[in-house]
Amino acid sequence: MNQKKPNKTLSKSADLDKEILSDLLEKTALLHDSIDWWDDRISEIVSEIDRLEALPWSPEIEKDIYNNQNKLKKFLKRGDSEMKNINRLEKDIQDFFLKWGVA
């Protein structure tokens, strides 16, 4: 009975791939939570702008609308970094699965 010993190189490679996949899943969950947070904040600001616009005009309301529009612009600009993170994660996931011939 001559049994082959497991290939240590393959075992180490599989362990490394498990770590990489685990890391990708963790990054995906974090990015998902971050996007949910951004979406909630933007929705709150848009709702507040809509609420203010439904009120009778006054200088104070106009100022509040202007301030909320500026907040919204800042959030949307910062959203560009989230898009870069998504693109980077998509590439990493694609590279991982291409390595295994799954794509």
Average pLDDT: 87
The end-to-end span amounts to: 40 Å
Overall helicity: over 70%
- Taken as a percent bin, the fraction of beta residues is under 5%
Order of helices and strands: HH
Structural class: mainly alpha
**What's the alpha carbon Rg, rounded to whole Å?**
24 Å
For the largest beta-sheet, the strand count, sense and barrel status come to: none
Overall morphology:
rod-shaped
> pLDDT under 50 segments (min length 5)?
none
The number of helices is: 2
Number of strands: 0
Give a structural overview.
The protein is mainly α and 103 residues long. The protein has a domain at 40-103. Helices cover 85% and strands 0% of the residues. The protein has two helices and no strands. Helix 1 (8-54) runs antiparallel to helix 2.
Task: Offer a concise description of the structure.
By secondary structure, this protein is mainly alpha-helical.
Annotate the secondary structure layout.
Layout: H1 8-54, H2 59-99
What are the main properties of this structure?
single chain; 103 residues; mainly alpha; 2 helices
